[in-house]
Structure formats: structure tokens, C-alpha cells
Design goal:
Layout: H1 17-22, E1 23-25, H2 31-37, E2 43-49, H3 54-68, E3 74-80, H4 85-90, E4 98-103, E5 106-112, H5 117-149, H6 152-165, H7 170-182, H8 186-193, H9 204-220, H10 225-234, H11 239-251, H12 255-269, H13 272-288, H14 293-306
Parallel strand pairs: 1-3, 2-3
Antiparallel strand pairs: 2-4, 4-5
Helix pairs in contact: 3-5, 5-6, 5-7, 6-7, 7-8, 7-9, 8-9, 9-11, 9-13, 10-11, 11-12, 12-13, 12-14, 13-14
């Protein structure tokens, strides 16, 4: 069913080496190489056809045209079931033409009969979209791990590459904004997080960036820790001074000490000023992220105080 294939439909003429790799015929002996192995690096469609099949002659030119338009992201492998019936039998092909899509060495979807070009494209778009989403998910996971390890430049590069593919990816925008926050570039962090689509602004990662930016602004206004420490020494129940001290400590990177100040305020009077100390602690947790060491320690201490 390729160009120049005896007995099969398709456009006449010679095709180059690159095109031949995108669209090819296969045999029972070569199926593992041409389909199973090839599908580990790209989506592979397998077109089961026969020379006597009229609908096959309608489908083949269309599916070839569509596959070529993906510039190598999708490959088409064609199998003449008259000459090579065993694979079709194993896959329980009942009628011709039948098209199976393979990914990672396994069949995942398919269709039977001649289809219009729009339906073929829709079928492939859905499967390619799933591949793209999976790839972006892996990239996001890698970027997060690098960010947690402290390599801000590499994390930012990965997030930027994701945004080249998906400019409105909220998780990547939030991750890139976190890189700016950790570099003390709050203006660019605010600009970046502002690009998140409205329907994604309630995501935990996005809210964490907003919390971190707000915390940075609080820290800039928190003043000298010595002033707050002196106020607490004069009156250990000066809860506002303790909250202000926690903010000042957090701004200086002393997150564990900041948590301890708020835990002490909660222990002394958890209801003071509409639970202001607990609410400030929650802001810290949102800004630092769920896996942050100080956030983990703070949640444990908070639970101990609240349920003791």
C-alpha cells in the first residue's frame, strides 16, 4: 500500500529515505522491528489491508497524507494480510481496512473501515496529545526535582522548554516563578505568575507562588528581629510582636525559627485576633510548599498543639 507497491493503492512516484521511514510496508518477520520497537520512540499506526479491498484504496491515500503532515511524530506501517495473515489473526482483525495505533510496544486504540481525512486527523491528534501530555508531565517532574535540589538555572531551563511547547502551562509558569522567587527576583515572579490562565489560578502550585510573593512583601516591612525580640522579652504575651518576629525570621531564611515563634503564639492563645498566628503559619506552608522541611516540621508541631 505504499507508493509503487504492487497491487496496493497509493500515489505513484519515488519517495526519499526520510519519507520511507515514516511510511513503510512490513512483514511478519519485521513486525517486531517496524512496529513494536519503533512505537517506543513514536506513535505507530498499522494499516491492515488487502489488494482486493476497495475501502482500503480509499483510506490509504488519506492516512498517508495525514501521517506525513506530522513530520515524523507519527509513523505508518502497512501490512498486506493476504501475504502476512498471522499478525492480523493475533490482533483479531475482523474486517479490512483496520488500523491499530501502537505506543510503547502495545496496541492502544484503532478503527475499522474507510474514514474521512478529518476523522483520521482527529484520531491521531488525540493520541499525539496524550503523548505530549505524558512528555510534559515527565519534564515537570524532572524540573520539580531539580528545583528542590537547588539547581535554579537548570530548573528554569526545563520550565522554559515546557512553556515553549505549552505557553499557558500553569505548573510550568508556577515553577518558573518559584525559580525567580528563590533568586529574589520578585518582580519577574509576579509577572510570570500573572500569565496563568484564570481557570488555573486556584491550583496549589499557583497559590503557593502568590503566597511566597506576599510573604516577601511582608518580610520587607517586618523590620529588625531585635526590635520584636525585645518586645517579646518585655511581654511574652505580645502576640503581634511574635507574629512580626516570625515574618522577619522567615524573610531571612530562618524558617524553622519562624515556625517556632508562631507555634508558641498558638500555644499561648490560639484564638487571639481571629487565630492570626495559625493563619500566618498556613501562609508560610503555602509559600514554602508541601514538601519543604520547615513546612513538614510546622504541620507536625501545629497538629501537636491543636490536638493536645
Amino acid at each position: 500500500m505504499t507508493s509503487g507497491q504492487q497491487g496496493g493503492p497509493g500515489a505513484a512516484g519515488m519517495i526519499g529515505a526520510a519519507a520511507a521511514d515514516i511510511i513503510k510496508d512490513t512483514t511478519t518477520a519485521n513486525f517486531a522491528r517496524d512496529v513494536i520497537e519503533a512505537s517506543k520512540s513514536a506513535l505507530v499506526l498499522v494499516d491492515f489491508w488487502a489488494p482486493w479491498c476497495g475501502p482500503c484504496k480509499q483510506l490509504t491515500p488519506l492516512i498517508e497524507k495525514v501521517v506525513r503532515s506530522y513530520n515524523g511524530a507519527v509513523k505508518l506501517v502497512k501490512m498486506n494480510t493476504d501475504e502476512h495473515p498471522s499478525i492480523a489473526g493475533q490482533l483479531r482483525v475482523q474486517s479490512l481496512p483496520t488500523v491499530y495505533a501502537f505506543r510503547d510496544g502495545k496496541p492502544l486504540d484503532g478503527f475499522m473501515g474507510a474514514q474521512p481525512e478529518s476523522a483520521i486527523r482527529q484520531f491521531i491528534d488525540r493520541l499525539v496529545g496524550e503523548d505530549k501530555a505524558a512528555d510534559l508531565g515527565e519534564a515537570l517532574k524532572a524540573a520539580t526535582e531539580v528545583l528542590l535540589a537547588g539547581d535554579l538555572q537548570q530548573a528554569a531551563e526545563i520550565y522554559a522548554s515546557i512553556l515553549q511547547e505549552d505557553p499557558q502551562n500553569a505548573e510550568a509558569l508556577a515553577g518558573l516563578a518559584q525559580c525567580y522567587i528563590k533568586s529574589d527576583d520578585f518582580a519577574r515572579a509576579e509577572q510570570t505568575i500573572g500569565l496563568v490562565p484564570p481557570d488555573k489560578r486556584k491550583l496549589a502550585s499557583v497559590m503557593s507562588v502568590h503566597a511566597a510573593i506576599e510573604l516577601a512583601k511582608q518580610g520587607a516591612e517586618a523590620g529588625d528581629t531585635a526590635v520584636h525580640e525585645a518586645a517579646i522579652a518585655a511581654d511574652p504575651k505580645n502576640h503581634q510582636a511574635r507574629i512580626d518576629l516570625s515574618i522577619a525570621l522567615a524573610a531571612r531564611g530562618k524558617k524553622l525559627e519562624a515556625v517556632d515563634q508562631l507555634i508558641e503564639a498558638i500555644r499561648l492563645d490560639r484564638k487571639w485576633s481571629d487565630e492570626a498566628a495559625r493563619k500566618q503559619l498556613v501562609k508560610f506552608f503555602e509559600a514554602w510548599g508541601f514538601k519543604d522541611e520547615a513546612a513538614v516540621d510546622g504541620r507536625r508541631k501545629l497538629s501537636s498543639v491543636l490536638f493536645s
